[in-house]
Design a protein that fits this description.
alpha+beta, 2 domains, six-stranded antiparallel beta sheet, 9 helices, Surface presentation of antigens (SPOA), Chemotaxis protein chec, 10 strands
Amino acid sequence: MVDVLSQNEIDALLAALSSGEMDAEELKKEETQRKIRSYDFKRAVRFSKDHIRTLTRIHENFARYLTTYFSAQLRTFVQINVVQVEQLPYDEFIRSIPKMTILNIFEAEPLKGRMVLEVNPNVALAMLDRLLGGAGIAPSKIQGLTEIETTVLERVFSRAFDSLHEAWKTVLDIRPRLESLETNPQFMQIVSPNETIALISLSTKIGDTTGMINLCIPHVVIEPIMPKLSVHHWFVSEKKMSEPIEVEKLRQRVTKAELPIVTELGQSQITVNELMQLTIGDVLPLQKKVNEGLGVYVGERLKYIATPGNVKDRLAVQIVDVIEGEVEEDDE
């Protein structure tokens, strides 16, 4: 793509050439020279900048959902944010994480293959301490997990994948499912060492404990849906999906709203003294003829005209006319 210079940049360039600060011949030589860029074949670039931006947006939503989920589960302050989204070889990711960590290996149908949610032991053990009634402080010495501790963490993280499902909904309806929980990275080989992965790093703070949560997504797993990770496709899909959902939610709320319906037989005016003197058997004349329709009010608005009757020995009215638009009633 050719860079387009602004008018100010053009004026500055002409001024530099006129003053002799820049040489036109040197500029021509620079244009004719080949621009060489180093390329490491061990770090194959599989994700474009467009893909990285889309993955960042998706997992910013994931971080928000995860913050809400862990806050409710742990009943303490939780803050999770996306720090970085990068691509690197799987072997480099394995060498960058602690020798003892929490590795949640999961699948997400309809995608084929396995992914990993790596949780720093400080964060995971702080969660565990909080869930078991503690203050949410990670122990100074990190040891292996007991069977009970493993079961508790599996239950918590398996439900956390619901947040991933919600975050990816605008791109693909995935169904993440926890397959196993490991603590030693050397025993986890989900792809070949040179396979490129997308690494989403999330900074996590639980109370006073801080650490990282890393989501490892191999390129081979999401390769079939790479066209859907373009920013244009993502925004179009999000708009198409969000509008019907919002309309449907609004419709459901409106249909469940309760409204008072009142049928008015008529009106009558009496004095306070007459009201105080009323007894059983007294008759109040109404300002409405017997053959006139009755007004049916929805809330405070006259909406229907009805005639009185009964259904199965119960008083009822039958709608005979619908009032369109607003009706202005004369003040008596």
